[in-house]
Amino acid sequence: MIGAGKLHLLPKLFGRGFGDMMCRAPMLDWIVTYFTVLPLVAGPVVASVWLGGAWWQGLLGAVLGQMLTVWVWGFLHELAHPDARKGPRIVKALNRVVGRWRNHLAVWWTAWAVPVFWVVRLAEYFVYPPLIWLVRFPRYPAGEWVNVSRQKFEGLVGHDLIWCLYCDWMTGVWSLGTEMLRNVESFWCPIRFRSDKKCANCVIDFPDIDGGWTASDATIADAARVVEEKYAGRKENAWFGHASRKVDLTVEGKSRGA
Question: How far is Cα 136 from Cα 124, in angstroms, rounded to an integer?
């Protein structure tokens, strides 16, 4: 709760620019880690090392502390915005659609995925960057993907706001990871799947399935030819539909001043 209070206070002390910086990676990554993952590590350490208890007691205490903080913050935030609290809200609409207890239990159940998304974010920090140097994959300004802005949407308060911010962060992390995986798949394995159903399901996230990958009944020579055609002489080895391919980034094109 002290940390949440500081988040409300710091932009007022240091200005809007500082507040905007807190809403984008990389600073946003530190904030998310502080509230979501750090307690899950610190709790067991404090319980087992400093208090002489069992690690699971510290983990349980950390989780309960996180949940209590969300509830208390949400309650106080709604009190501070009575008009929005009493008006139309997403939580009220969903409570009517599926029932109050089902809605709240379901949204809390999704919290299991928070550490998973955090690990994905770590991979974006430590696994992907060496590929930029090793095989010339494109760079991505993470702040354009990993950011939050739904706090600016009028009427979002308390419960609605905290969960919408969670989804705001989550979708950015996942979308950036998917974009990076497009480069991995098209670079090393540009071959369509044998299953037409899998191709249809995956083409949304991997457009190169229908945009250049070798047919599943082709030969390995065909696959090698695709690699040569798509990557030989290029300055940046992006997936086939990447925006950079609309510009001539080949060595030949560079020599012409393109």
Answer: 16
Q: If we measure between CA atoms, which residue out of 156, 149, 206 comes closest to residue 23? A: 149
Mind listing the pLDDT tens digit of every residue in the chain (258 residues)? 999 999 999 988 999 899 999 999 999 999 999 999 999 999 999 999 988 889 999 999 999 999 999 999 999 999 999 999 999 999 999 999 999 999 999 999 999 999 999 999 999 999 999 999 999 999 999 999 999 999 999 999 999 999 999 999 999 999 999 999 999 999 999 999 999 999 999 999 999 999 999 999 999 999 999 999 999 999 999 999 999 988 654 444 444 333
3-state secondary structure of 80: helix
* Helices 27-36, 2-14: inter-axial angle, 10-degree rounding: 160
Residue 43 makes CB contacts below 8 A (sequence gap 6+) with: 58, 59, 60, 61, 62, 63, 65
CA distances from 246 to 13, 57, 94, 134, 138 (A): 44, 55, 43, 23, 14
Vertex 130, ends 126 and 134: CA angle to 5°?
Answer: 165
The residues facing 147 across adjacent strands are 24
Measured CA to CA, the distance from residue 127 to residue 46 in angstroms comes to 30
- Enumerate the β-bridge partners of residue 191: 214
What's the sign of the alpha-carbon dihedral 244, 249, 253, 258? positive
